[in-house]
Amino acid sequence: MQPRILVRKDPVRWGIISAANIGVRGVAPAIRASANGRLMAVGSRDKQHAAEVYSFASNVRIYNSYEAILEDPEIEAVYIPLPNSLHAEWTLKALQAGKHVLCEKPLAPTREEAEEMVAVAQAQQILLMEAFMYRFHPQIIWALEQVRAGAIGTVRLVRASFSFDIRSHPENIRLQAELAGGALMDVGCYPVNLFRAIYGHAPQSVAARVHTSSPTSVDQTTNAVLDYGDGCFGILDTSLGLPSRQGAEIVGDAGSITLPVPFTPGNYDMTAFIMKDGQMTEQSFTGVDQYQLEVEHFAQCIRTRQDPQLSLNETLENLTTIEAIYEAAGMDWPII
């Protein structure tokens, strides 16, 4: 008889490293609203600022350092929304402290750094997942199910766009080379992730162009064509200097799926469209908090000891693709 594995039912106890906006507005409220998680503490190098922005969570401990989160024995899982250049350093420290880690995308600036993070997580038998929250939204799950069921035939083309304009804020961390910023790293990684989710593997080759304000600055705009073999392509455009816009079109040899707001739909109702045999049909989705779905999934994996839906192999392949896009565009990466 196989031994019975007891699954704990108590909420996973979370800590957040830094008072970054995505944590304050997105992930922290999601953890607090989750059915299987509890936000215990936030670590910040500016305790007063953290206390102010987390005033909505009066029962959450505010520490004056990142290290304090890792030293807290009550905390089981850590969410890391630091600048890209700090992902590897603090993920490794968290893993070595025995904490499960949900790290913001991209997992690291380079595949080499990410491989070290993955190796430590596997050696420690601790969960590590890249935080692509959009993958947990019902519209994305539905779209991938349609693709796998052959509803639009064999997919031959995926177009995806994601941009917003921060040119008036040159101090923004997304524009800082030393923090591994850039359009591709910040928002272009979403289309790269979507292409991989649809095709199931990395591209065979890449052609790309980037626009930068100087040889030592990050990419403000990146455009790329990714060849997945056998006449299958991904077309990406992303920018930090164009109006806020996003969209995805998945084209098969028997039809197409259009997602008007694939990556950050908010909590609003969404509608996707299937075009097939000259007829367009709609698929509606009730608004959800995709951050909450993400943290609930990760917490469930911690309790059930199952691998997360987003595999580390997928993450590594996507980082290889990002590096290939920069290389194809003739851009040294990382810049510093």
UniProtKB/TrEMBL annotation:
<dbReference type="InterPro" id="IPR036291">
    <property type="entry name" value="NAD(P)-bd_dom_sf"/>
</dbReference>
<feature type="domain" description="Gfo/Idh/MocA-like oxidoreductase N-terminal">
    <location>
        <begin position="13"/>
        <end position="130"/>
    </location>
</feature>
<dbReference type="InterPro" id="IPR050984">
    <property type="entry name" value="Gfo/Idh/MocA_domain"/>
</dbReference>
<dbReference type="GO" id="GO:0000166">
    <property type="term" value="F:nucleotide binding"/>
</dbReference>
<dbReference type="InterPro" id="IPR000683">
    <property type="entry name" value="Gfo/Idh/MocA-like_OxRdtase_N"/>
</dbReference>
<keyword id="KW-0560">Oxidoreductase</keyword>
<feature type="domain" description="GFO/IDH/MocA-like oxidoreductase">
    <location>
        <begin position="145"/>
        <end position="257"/>
    </location>
</feature>
<comment type="similarity">
    <text>Belongs to the Gfo/Idh/MocA family.</text>
</comment>
<protein>
    <submittedName>
        <fullName>Oxidoreductase</fullName>
    </submittedName>
</protein>
<dbReference type="Pfam" id="PF01408">
    <property type="entry name" value="GFO_IDH_MocA"/>
</dbReference>
<dbReference type="Pfam" id="PF22725">
    <property type="entry name" value="GFO_IDH_MocA_C3"/>
</dbReference>
<dbReference type="GO" id="GO:0016491">
    <property type="term" value="F:oxidoreductase activity"/>
</dbReference>
<dbReference type="InterPro" id="IPR055170">
    <property type="entry name" value="GFO_IDH_MocA-like_dom"/>
</dbReference>
